[in-house]
């Protein structure tokens, strides 16, 4: 029997509909949520990601502003542009598309985005708050994975979640969010010996490695939930995940496809975070 598909496209659409309703409500109060997206240089993949983010904002009635900066921009000028956006009333979220050119310190750039507008949830303050379970903007991809699980009625409490990958933007925060929902979490990475001996123990297996079709049936416990964060190109230049879908299909109880799994959720959660940031300014204005 085939594994049940966790359809991120459908779940994402459902969430976007409710986010669009909130945008409508905000607009009736005279406020249009606004996202500023900074793109440095001409990286083709970054350009595509940014275009998708802008299109998604516009589709639900949000304002989005693309700030295109040259590859050779100085770090100081970039930081000044961010500080200026930090003060703008029409901008509620700021996103700097990564990676940045080598001469720019990414950590410094991210730390300069004000906490109130860090809708990517990457700044040290946002990460610290997330670790402490305090209210903050959650990093969009792991946040999206949590929503996929929730919408698929997969309760993570008491389950063993194994994460493959420990990047700052996916693996590490993913484990934290699962831990907060009472999963028992194991992290694995490139220095983990005998990876299948760990992944085979997973009730929930989350894969964020960046290697096409790397995870096969030998890594998966029968009946496990498999979430594939990977986005790669296969030998035919077709988009594929880190999981060999055809090989794992039927072993896992549930699986996310690529495309149409985690991918659509990342932008959805960016919209959610930006609308939340706009809603907070209204709540804040009412108090003051
Ligand atoms: P990353 O920063 O390159 O991190 C990859 C992680 O995988 C590292 O922690 C690395 O371990 C680990 N790893 C590498 N080879 C391994 C192996 N053989 N066995 C076990 N672990 C191994 O990548 P990322 O940013 O987390 O992204 C991962 C994938 O998700 C990529 O395909 C990316 O395109 C995709 N992605 C998708 C979305 C989305 O919206 N769907 C969002 C973000 C990323 P070390 O730490 O030891 O090096």
Overview of the molecule:
The protein has two domains: 32-115, Leucine Dehydrogenase, chain A, domain 1 (Rossmann fold, 3-Layer(aba) Sandwich); 140-263, 3-Layer(aba) Sandwich (Rossmann fold). Helices cover 42% and strands 15% of the residues. It has helices at 8-28, 44-59, 75-87, 106-112, 124-131, 140-151, 171-180, 195-199, 245-248, 263-287; strands at 4-5, 34-40, 63-69, 93-96, 160-164, 184-188, 204-207, 225-228, 232-233, 239-240, 254-255. The protein has a six-stranded parallel beta sheet. β2, α2 (44-59) and β3 form a beta-alpha-beta unit. α1 (8-28) runs parallel beside α10 (263-287), α2 (44-59) crosses α10 and α6 (140-151) packs across α10. The radius of gyration is 19 Å and the shape is globular. 42% of the residues are buried. The chain binds NADP nicotinamide-adenine-dinucleotide phosphate (NAP). The site of NADP nicotinamide-adenine-dinucleotide phosphate has 26 residues, from α10.
């Amino acid at each position: 029997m085939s594994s049940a598909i966790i359809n991120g496209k459908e779940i994402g659409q459902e969430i976007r509909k409710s986010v669009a309703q909130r945008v409508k409500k905000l607009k009736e109060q005279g406020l249009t949520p606004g996202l500023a997206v900074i793109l440095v240089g001409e990286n083709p993949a970054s350009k595509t990601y940014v275009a998708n983010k802008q299109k998604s904002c516009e589709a639900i009635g949000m304002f989005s502003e693309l700030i295109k900066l040259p590859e050779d921009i100085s770090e100081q000028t970039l930081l000044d542009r961010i500080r200026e956006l930090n003060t703008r009333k029409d901008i509620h979220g700021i996103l700097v598309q990564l990676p940045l050119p080598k001469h720019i310190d990414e950590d410094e750039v991210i730390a300069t985005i004000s906490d109130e507008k860090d809708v990517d949830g990457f700044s040290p303050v946002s990460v610290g708050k997330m670790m402490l379970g305090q209210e903050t903007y959650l990093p969009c991809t792991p946040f999206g994975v949590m929503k996929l699980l929730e919408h698929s009625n997969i309760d993570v409490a008491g389950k063993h979640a194994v994460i493959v990958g420990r990047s700052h933007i996916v693996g590490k925060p993913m484990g934290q969010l699962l831990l907060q929902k009472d999963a028992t979490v194991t992290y694995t990475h490139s220095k983990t010996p005998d990876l299948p001996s760990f992944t085979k123990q997973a009730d929930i297996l989350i894969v964020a490695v960046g290697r096409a079709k790397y995870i096969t049936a030998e890594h998966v416990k029968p009946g496990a939930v498999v979430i594939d964060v990977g986005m790669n190109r296969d030998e035919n230049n077709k988009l594929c995940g880190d999981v060999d879908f055809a090989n794992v299909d039927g072993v896992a109880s549930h699986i996310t496809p690529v495309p149409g799994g985690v991918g659509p959720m990342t932008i959805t959660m960016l919209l959610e975070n930006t609308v939340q940031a706009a809603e907070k300014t209204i709540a804040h204005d009412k108090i003051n």
